[in-house]
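User: Can you predict the 3D structure for this chain?
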Amino acid sequence: MVEVPKIPEEKEIELNPHDTALLIVDMQNDFLRKDGKLPVPTAEGTIQPIKDLIRKARDSSTLVIYTQDWHMKDDPEFKIWGEHALAGTWGAEIVDELKPEKDDFLIKKYRYDAFFETPLDYILRVKGIKNLVITGTVANICVLHTAGSAALRWYNVIMPKDGVSAITDFDYYATLRQVDFLYKGKITTSTGIKLNTK
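Assistant: Here is the predicted structure, written as structure tokens:
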């Protein structure tokens, strides 16, 4: 039995919408739907918290960015996970409940890390972003790699724990631990994020 260290949690975090972005990682059919290629058991439960965050973000003119796992037919990653999120298929599409809107950014990515060989960092810097609220799936894979890359670039990472999902509880808590302990990010809930429009 491994004891999970206590992970500090902030009840509320006030953020300036002008230097904050909401990042929604890989909320795609293959990961969320039972008939998807790589379903994450708890992912559907994060749809409503993420939906609430999207509403808050849009109401306050906070930047909303989606990532989309997007694989070629012969992608080497399939040797690890099997075929999933194949470019242009139903499985690669963002779930209907969370569809991007015209002013949102959609970043197609080929690896776990949303910063790797994508324009994400450029977009964030041009928009003057300092704070990155990271949600999505899979917690210890694409979410954590992206959070790590964000922290290494000195973005402030905020993670609402009800807005991320993992294949196992161990992976979920390991993600929260890493974000807090290693990346000095802040853990809260979707309701704890306050986008101060004053």
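The radius of gyration is 16 Å. The chain is about 30% helix and 20% strand.
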